[in-house]
Design brief:
The protein has 2 domains: about 1-200 and about 335-345, Rossmann fold, CATH 3.40.50; about 205-330, Glycogen Phosphorylase B (Rossmann fold, 3-Layer(aba) Sandwich). It has 15 helices and 11 strands. It has about 350 residues and is an alpha/beta fold. It is globular, with a radius of gyration of 20 Å.
């Protein structure tokens, strides 16, 4: 069976790229051929990256005053995507999408993962129109779709999605209720693809990193409070800090994975920062990022019976609060089996 993966446009987000890669590899391990729709906007890559850089530099002038804009990270991202993702031809508009469907002769379409159920993040002019082209000749499922928060946005647009994709699974537990409440759909709660795939698919990327035996801080929305906490913990634990974000201070995807795998411990406000800490059985602590939605962290911690990970001050970061990774890994095995069965049973109907 040949399966198309319909996710968000792949730009420069570590988690967004890695979940697409993981979905591809998981499907391959189940015996399917998988290919990812290569959605691309003609206009937005460098300009969006440069705008993010400028915003970071203005807001955090002292911290970033000597940093210059280097689009090399976009080249690193493009190289990773080119080397590791099985992509269709570029899709710039609806006509390209239809050409790809005709050329590839897919048997099924998997929509997900990431925030595919949050229209503000679609970031592709013809995203909704392309979804509507996925007619009933394809087997169609949503896998680990995310609304991004505890509220569903733009219900009219989302209804068109659920009219096309009636077999649904979600990444957050709160998404189960949203699907039932707004769309009358009985959704299943499943693993993010990065957790569904085997750990070995990431281990091949491990390399040297400046974060080895240090505190690795992956903070998407850093501020004075998070910076102060990092300084206090660094001093108290007598450990250096390797801090990375998606704006002015980036590393390659390979080094990002390696930094989590080799750090002494991880501090993050990112869902996938927490996920990869779990994958590599690392101690980690998380800031709740209200602006980006906290449902995903709450859901992740509930699934894996994790407590004491949320931090509001440096005093909340206590390495004596050990994670029972024997229990976490057992839950992961059980959830992998459940999530795998959801995919296979619905694709083989």
């Amino acid at each position: 069976m040949k399966i198309a993966i319909f996710t968000l446009p792949l730009i420069n987000n570590y988690g967004g790229i890695l979940q697409a890669y993981a979905m591809q590899e998981a499907l391959k391990s189940f015996g399917y051929e998988a290919k990812i729709f290569r959605l691309k906007n003609r206009r937005k890559y460098i300009s969006m990256a440069f705008c993010k850089f400028l915003a970071a530099k203005i807001i955090k002038f002292k911290k970033y005053k000597n940093i210059k804009f280097q689009p090399v990270y976009l080249a690193d991202t493009a190289k990773f995507i080119s080397n590791n993702l099985n992509l269709t031809d570029d899709i710039l508009e609806l006509s390209n999408f239809n050409n790809v469907l005709e050329k590839e002769q897919f048997d099924a379409i998997v929509l997900g993962s990431d925030q595919v159920l949050r229209p503000r993040y679609w970031a592709f002019d013809d995203y909704e129109t392309c979804l509507l082209q996925c007619d009933d000749k394809f087997k169609k499922i949503i896998y680990a779709g995310s609304f991004g928060s505890k509220q569903a946005e733009n219900l009219e647009k989302l209804k068109s999605v659920f009219d096309k994709f009636k077999v649904v699974s979600v990444r957050e537990k709160s998404g189960v209720e949203l699907c039932k409440k707004h769309f009358g759909v009985e959704a299943k709660w499943v693993l993010d693809p990065t957790l569904l795939a085997d750990k070995q698919i990431y281990e091949k990327f491990l390399c040297e990193t400046k974060a080895e035996n240090k505190i690795f801080a992956y903070i998407l929305d850093s501020n004075e409070k998070t910076s102060q906490i990092l300084r206090e913990v660094s001093k108290r634990e007598n450990l250096g800090v390797c801090e990375v974000n998606d704006k002015a201070n980036r590393i390659s995807i390979e080094k990002w994975i390696s930094s989590i795998a080799k750090a002494k411990f991880v501090i993050t406000d990112s869902f996938h920062g927490c996920v990869f800490s779990i994958i590599f059985n690392k101690p980690f602590f998380a800031f709740v990022n209200e602006a980006r939605g906290n449902a995903r962290l709450e859901s992740l911690f509930e699934m894996f019976e994790l407590s004491g990970r949320i931090i509001n001050s440096s005093g909340d970061i206590n390495l004596d609060k050990k994670i029972d990774y024997e229990r976490v890994n057992q839950i992961l095995l059980e959830q992998k089996e459940f999530s795998k069965n959801f995919i296979i049973s619905n694709l083989e109907k």
